[in-house]
Design goal:
Blueprint (H helix, E strand, L loop, with lengths): L5 E5 L5 E5 L2 E6 L2 E7 L3 E7 L3 E2 L1 H10 L2 E5 L5 E5 L7 H11 L2 H30 L6 H17 L3 H17 L25 H23 L18 H7 L3 H14 L8 E3 L5 E3 L1 H16 L1 E3 L6 E3 L3 H13 L13
Parallel strand pairs: 1-5, 2-6, 5-7
Antiparallel strand pairs: 2-3, 3-4, 7-8, 9-10, 11-12
């Protein structure tokens, strides 16, 4: 089984990545800031004005370490990846099923059920910690339960999207009930993306971008095409399958990290800047705090609910991609999504 590896995040502006034998060297202000053996990495994510040498990009491509270049906000600009050692028969089967409406709903339904179940678990955890009816959490759980029933019976992708959208509105409508900070700054004012209109949205969108990198790499590593999804339909430049698989982990990984750093006081209002457009940008310090918390979350250990094996949270995208590949190869009767306990 693939072992848990680390992701190298480079956030210092003006940094330059170079190759030194079998290691990645990060230089900042003319000094070596870090040296990491390439075999310890599963990916490199560069934010903002960060460069990399052709030699390093070649080394990473050969070793299967994807390099992603993102804006400081977390919007993907481009990726450097090596040759995908995938089974062409697996991808052909993926494409065939993506063109079949009944096959799409067969795969999309368990993914959406897992997403809704995991968001409800996050809300129930907050209710245990903070009380049974804080800012509508109990009502949001009831609404999510109704959406779960609707999703199980959804006859089409369109109906399934309706159930998922209704559950998302209930979840984010009660999101403030899971925040214990008294700072008015950390109050979610509805879900906003481009640009995020408040610090909570800024952190959520940022971590969703990072999580998307991990899930996309996992799909590629097992030979799947991350661009061809079943719930998220084809659109130029959109990694549909990566977004499909990512739905299972949004609440369980990214949302819980955001709630943790807020509720523990690890981020402060001073760590966010309002830009002329009205969007909110994180400072370098806040971004680093969030990435450290994300890495710590990935290192947490759980027992996989389907495989019954002990693993790290960071390995979950890879395991789910493997299970989906097995289902597409007809080695399993159905796709078993990740549902947290």
């Amino acid at each position: 089984m693939k072992r848990h590896l680390n992701t190298l995040f480079v956030t210092t502006q003006g940094s330059y990545l170079a190759k030194e034998r079998e290691s990645v060297v990060v230089r900042a202000d003319g000094e070596v800031a870090m040296r990491v053996p390439v075999h310890n990495l599963d990916g490199i994510i560069c934010f903002g004005h960060v460069g990399a040498s052709p030699a390093l990009m070649g080394l990473c491509a050969e070793r299967g370490v994807a390099i992603s270049f993102l804006t400081e906000r977390g919007r993907l600009l481009g990726r450097v990846v090596g040759f995908t050692h995938g089974n062409v028969l697996l991808r052909r089967e993926q494409y065939r099923r993506a063109d079949d409406a009944s096959a799409c709903i067969e795969i999309a339904r368990p993914i959406v059920l897992a997403k809704l179940g995991n968001t409800r678990s996050v809300m129930r955890r907050a209710m245990r910690d903070h009380g049974p009816d804080v800012n509508g959490l109990e009502e949001a759980c009831v609404r999510t339960g109704r959406c779960l029933r609707d999703a199980r019976l959804a006859p089409s992708i369109e109906v399934l999207r309706g159930a998922e959208g209704e559950a998302a509105r209930a979840y984010f409508g009660a999101f403030n009930g899971m925040i214990t900070s008294t700072e008015e700054t950390f109050h979610l004012r509805g879900r906003s993306r481009r640009p995020p209109k408040d610090p909570v949205n800024a952190m959520l969108s940022f971590l969703y971008s990072v999580l998307s990198h991990d899930v996309r790499s996992a799909a590629e590593s097992v030979g799947l095409d991350p661009a061809v999804g079943f719930f998220h339909r084809d659109r130029p430049g959109r990694p549909g399958l990566a977004l499909d698989l990512m739905e299972e982990f949004r609440a369980f990984v990214a949302d819980r990290v955001v709630l943790t750093v807020i509720n523990r006081g690890q981020v402060s209002p001073r760590g966010f800047v309002t830009e002329p457009t009205g969007g909110i940008r994180m400072t370098d310090e806040t971004r680093k705090t969030l990435l450290v918390a994300y890495q710590e979350r990935k290192q947490g250990e759980i027992v996989h609910p389907f495989l019954k094996e002990k693993t790290t949270i960071g390995m979950l995208p890879h395991l789910q991609a493997l299970l989906l590949a097995r289902f597409l190869r007809r080695e399993m009767d159905g796709y078993p999504p990740f549902i947290s306990r």
